[in-house]
Amino acid sequence: MPYFEDQTFEFAKTGELEKGNYENCHFNQCDFQGDNWSGFKFTECTFEDCNLSLVKLSGSGLSEVQFKSCKIRGVRFEDANPLGFGVKFDNCALNDSSFYSLSWKNPQFLNCDLENVDFSEAQIKKAVFIGSNLLNAVFDRTNLMECDFRKATNLRLNLVSNQVKGAIFSQEQTQDLLAALGVKVE
Question: Which of 167, 159, 152, 160 is nearest to 117 (CA)?
Fold first, then answer.
């Protein structure tokens, strides 16, 4: 399989990316919407201002990959290879995507749109959700220990069905979480 290292790809379009191993590559303003990345491997790569909506990740490798200002809607990240899985997101739209049952260290979702995203059964201890919109995001039997939800909006979370020990919430979020348990705060 072809190997690409330290390369920059700009303005690439759907179907143009060759199946291979990409290490320390930068993708800028590319439109890969709907591509099938089965068997691709990305290590220490950065995607910036790209459209990755509906990309199929079956068996693909994503290790130390950063996404900045990307549109990544409707992507099933749980289909990627779980070995070495590691991704971080900054200012991305991930609406309708899924991280079901995934496990990875120190996930970051900074200022992201996470509407309707499924985090059920995910092991995302120490995740950072600062400034992210979590409208209708699903957390069910999710390990959220030591996660940082400060400045996240629209957070709805069942404190009983999720592990939240050590998680950080704002004062306003705490009141909403307790109200969901039927506890009144005056």
Answer: 152
Q: Which amino acid is at 149?
A: F
Which of 76, 91, 106 corresponds to the end of one domain? 91
* Other C-beta atoms lying within 10 Å of the C-beta of residue 154: 13
The residue range of the domain holding 72 is 1-91
- In 3D space, the residue among 72, 55, 138, 147 whose CA is nearest the CA of residue 100 turns out to be 138
62 lies in the same domain as 149: no
Per-residue pLDDT tens over the stretch 15-45:
999 999 999 999 999 999 999 999 999 999 9
Give Dmax (Cα) for the chain: 63
CATH number of the domain where residue 31 is located:
2.160.20.80
Q: Are strands 21-23 and 41-43 parallel, antiparallel or unpaired?
A: parallel
Asked if residue 160 and residue 87 are part of one domain, the reply reads no
Query: Among 73, 45, 72, which Cα is nearest to 61's?
Result: 45
pLDDT along the chain (186 residues), means of 10: 95 94 98 96 98 97 98 98 96 98 94 98 96 96 96 91 93 74 70
Residues 106 and 82 reside in one and the same domain:
no
pTM of the model: 0.93
Is residue 185 located within the same domain as residue 114? yes
**Which of 158, 70, 157, 165 has its CA nearest to residue 112?**
70
